[in-house]
Fold this sequence. Notes:
By secondary structure, this protein is of the alpha/beta class. The protein is built from eight helices and nine strands. It has one domain: Rossmann fold (3-Layer(aba) Sandwich). 43% of the residues lie in helices and 18% in strands. The strands form two sheets. A five-stranded parallel beta sheet has the order 2-7-1-8-9, sandwiched between helices. It has a four-stranded mixed beta sheet with strand order 4-3-6-5. A hairpin with a 2-residue loop joins β5 and β6. The termini are far apart. 33% of the residues are buried. The site of the ligand Nc1nc2c(ncn2[C@@H]2O[C@H](COP(=O)(O)O)[C@@H](O)[C@H]2O)c(=O)[nH]1 has 15 residues, from β5, β6 and α5. It is found in: Cytoplasm, Cytosol; Photoreceptor inner segment.
Amino acid sequence: MSWRRPLGCALATAMQGPRPVVLSGPSGAGKSTLLKKLLKDYENIFGFSVSHTTRQPRPGEVNGKDYHFVTREDMLKDVNAGEFIEHAEFSGNMYGTSKAAVQAVQAQNQICVLDVDMQGVKNIKKTDLNPIYISIQPPSLEVLEKRLRERQTETEESLQKRLKAARVDLELSKEPGLFNLIIINDNLEVAYLKLKEILAEEIKKAQGPKKS
Ligand SMILES: Nc1ncnc2c1ncn2[C@@H]1O[C@H](COP(=O)(O)OP(=O)(O)OP(=O)(O)O)[C@@H](O)[C@H]1O
Ligand SMILES: Nc1nc2c(ncn2[C@@H]2O[C@H](COP(=O)(O)O)[C@@H](O)[C@H]2O)c(=O)[nH]1
């Protein structure tokens, strides 16, 4: 994969600037919930890399904010034109991170946060993005299923596909070194504290030196 960061980002890395953050983990584990808290509490520090997807928007989701909702035809065209850092097929739909999505966040001098599935993690590992990898996991598959059902966003077919993918995800996540941290999202506040703890150093870097 020939994704190269813009010069500004390469310089930031050389100067030990803040690293991007990849959040992964099974669908329903709580990635978006934790991410929304982080983006709200650290508005100018973190910026969300808005992915593309071919799935239908859920009630309340905003095009260009939650996702770029596109047709498969358009997405394939852009993928073939080399506009994506990574892309994957998940639960019958395409998802992907465009170069433009990451660059838009970096242009604001914000720490770029990506929410991607396990295929995304593996593909980003092949690039020079050098993020911190965090896996958000449910306390059990039973709890995961309950959360997904209660979210009321999935058909029975899609729910079963997501549970199947979750089993694979949890197995693969055991690979040593794949993630910098695995957070079990049982109690939301505890999980959020752990997330902030691992990002504390990057937040400090992004905030810059304190004026006295
Ligand atoms: N710690 C928690 N305790 C109870 N419910 C939670 C907790 N964390 C998240 N939830 C709920 O679980 C559901 C799934 O969470 P969320 O949508 O954030 O998952 P996700 O990992 O982003 O899923 P997806 O990958 O499908 O987007 C939501 O309804 C959310 O409110
Ligand atoms: N590889 C990628 N995976 C992505 C991307 N954006 C989201 N996702 C993952 O898809 C599933 C399902 O998401 P949902 O919004 O339909 O519930 C979830 O695991 C996300 O992490 C992406 O750009 N690339």
